[in-house]
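Reminder to self: keep the SMILES exactly as supplied, no canonicalising. Ligand is fe (ii) ion.
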Amino acid sequence: MADTASPIELPVIDISNPHDPSVGKQMLDAAAKYGFLYVNSKGTDFTTEDVDHAFGLSKKFFASPAEEKETCRITPNNRGWSGMHTETLDPEHQRTGDFKEAMNFGDFKDGKAQQPLPPSLVPHEAEINGFAALCNKTCNRILNLLALGLEMQEDFFTSRHDPSDGPTGSILRYLYYPSIFSAATAAYKHDKDVRAGAHSDYGSITLLFQRPGQPGLEILTPESTWAPVPIVPGEQADAYPFPPVLVNIGDLLSYWTDGLLKSTVHRVVFPLAEQQSPNPQDRYTLVYFCHPVDTTELVPVPSEVVKAHREQTGGIEARDDGKVGFGGGAGNLEPGKRPLTAQEHLESRLAATYGFKKD
Ligand SMILES: O=C(O)CCC(=O)C(=O)O
Ligand SMILES: [Fe+2]
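Structure tokens returned for the bound complex:
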């Protein structure tokens, strides 16, 4: 695997006005160059309390007894709890599964979870639903701005991401990566193991909430080096009410825009400084994978910017051996084939992952 390079500098974008085309352009530039950007926590729909409270629930859940977590073990619909080493995001390069635990929540319906909740979280159903709804709201700001950046009708994406129109593949995920001092990581070997293997995300966009002092995320740069992503960018740690929310583009949106927006590979490691620290911390993150409504047809987006990109690159097939979004890009549909739906796109990505695991 490539060596770790110096930290990447990503822009921090203020999304408080989601109707500003110049902000849309900034966002498009970052999404096309890195596939990752930060949004200033001030312009989002979250208060510091919302985020602290969600992290508190996550901590409570991961600290609960294994027998309780077992009652909601993950099922093929991608909802529920996965224990230490259950998931292997990069099976080609990992000898051991990811050094993490995760809890995935799918869509809520009328405020109710559509999956078993563990006893530790049963009293908090409304709060979990509320946090997922705020995530969706913030994603709408970002999707609105991306549509403006692509010079399309600003509601092109948001109107296709409205959970009140039907089921979606969206997932709210709690993640827990024990520190290097934990018994769960005793077998961890630097250069052989990772906390989460290299992967790209499946959906439209992903939000990632991180805590100060709990680093680990790295992204693969266009030069094929691993670059750490700082939790708080820049010098001023106190410039934000809580660390800026990291946003990345997923495979589906990359596919939909013929690879103009980048779905960038990333992973989670134990940074060396963290391994040598006398007081290493567990890492907790909150992730929201935003997906369109299942029935959305992934027809080419009506954007001259995407069209120009397609003409310039000759299409994804020619440029990138068809790997973006696992299927060549929405504008590259073979004659006679109907467009994929969002649900089919997700199923093909999940099948690729489960297929790997079965080998
Ligand atoms: O926890 C993190 O930092 C990243 C998680 C992630 O990339 C994922 O779950 O897809
Ligand atoms: Fe990811």
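Points to follow up:
Residues 173, 175, 196, 201, 208, 217, 266, 268, 285, 287 surround 2-oxoglutaric acid (ligand 1) (CB under 6 Å).
The mean pLDDT is 90.
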